[in-house]
Amino acid sequence: MTSIVRKQTVPVRIGQVAMGGGAPIVVQSMTNTDTADVGQTVAQVVSLARTGSELVRITVDREEAAAAVPLIRAQLDTLGVNVPLIGDFHYNGHMLLAAYPDCAEALAKYRINPGNVGFKDKRDKQFSQIIDIALRYDKPVRIGVNWGSLDQELLTRLMDENAVSATPKDAREVMHEAIVQSALLSADRAQELGMGADKIVLSAKVSAVQDLIAVYGMLAARSHLALHLGLTEAGMGSKGIVASSAALSVLLQQGIGDTIRISLTPEPGGDRSLEVKVAQELLQSMGFRAFVPLVAACPGCGRTTSTTFQELARDIQDFIRDQMPDWKRRYPGVENLNVAVMGCIVNGPGESKHADIGISLPGTGETPAAPVFVEGKKVTTLRGPGAAAEFKQMVLDYIERRYGHGVIGEASEQGAPRTAAE
């Protein structure tokens, strides 16, 4: 794992999930179903949790949604899916939590947006009501500022003060300060009402990479509360993935962040769990956590006109993802496995030797033979149309030997097992 020194924040517990205080960075996601539709919401929560989301946020926007929350929680418990549910409240959260105590009890955390919890003279009253309910049910809260719904009174005041300043700042800097102050002032108010620092998570989301880096740098310097990272409205497909990864990787490298979400706009009918996979791959690529075995594969070139290595890499990667929920129980530590699927003789043997198990498939014009390496040593050479299937089975056998019974394969032509202690 990485040696990056993470900023020490106050530990928070959300259901059975620990975050902050040096705990592993937590992956979370959010449903996009109508929460009032219990069946669809349960199905999506199960899918997100199975993919690896450790916290799942659901929209609670009206009475029907609030009434559905305890039913969703009950069905998830029956299915053995114990992922904590976070209620996302805007405008009327104080009313829904008060009117539906079973909802307040079933949720593991409440998300409050200080920009729309209430307006003018109602703001403090309605914010206080949510905090009081959170205290009553012993629930943590996330105070989540978003520049798309920023407290306009606060922003206007700071802009006016800046206008008469002897050294006025750029308007964007004032916006950053308003976002940070909104989070910190709300956190201070929550603590005045009796909420401990170990019950508060802060977030300050914007949709531009450099703005997000600047805002979270300011927030981390001025608070020790746990921080949730996310680039809001990141976008669809590669744009959303690249923008989120660019912003979050910089902050994570600086030691900032206790939980993350990759907010992707899904394709119509697309897989919502993609955002979970991207979050996991980001954390694993940076060395913070291990979620699934890594599959290294070459990008291909004029030497690799055959698609065999691409198909095998895809098949193994997809198979690993599909099997991980079961493998986590059966093969502790398998997430640290490294597999290499290479396409020609240039880097294939070397890369395969660096992996726990790897195959170097023949490139264009090369001898139709595929050497297989286990823990740095060649164990066999596969030939013929069945080589891909044989290698896939070798990966499964290796996992069983190494992680299933405490033994690992001897790196020899015979592949005789040896104990892990050796």
Explain the overall architecture.
With 422 residues, the protein is α/β, with parallel strands linked by helices. Helices cover 43% and strands 18% of the residues. The protein is built from 13 helices and 19 strands. The protein has helices spanning 38-51, 63-78, 93-99, 101-106, 122-136, 152-163, 171-192, 209-222, 237-253, 274-285, 308-330, 348-354, 387-404; strands spanning 12-14, 17-19, 26-30, 55-59, 85-89, 109-112, 141-146, 200-205, 226-229, 235-236, 259-260, 264-265, 294-297, 338-342, 357-360, 370-374, 377-382, 407-409, 417-419. Strand 14 (338-342), helix 12 and strand 15 form a beta-alpha-beta unit. Mean pLDDT is 92; it is low at 406-422.
What is the structure about, briefly put?
This protein is 43% helix and 18% strand. It is of the alpha/beta class and 422 residues long. The strands form 5 sheets. Strands 3-4-5-6-7-8-9-11 form an 8-stranded parallel beta barrel, surrounded by 5 helices. Strands 13-14-15-16-17 form a 5-stranded mixed beta sheet, sandwiched between helices.
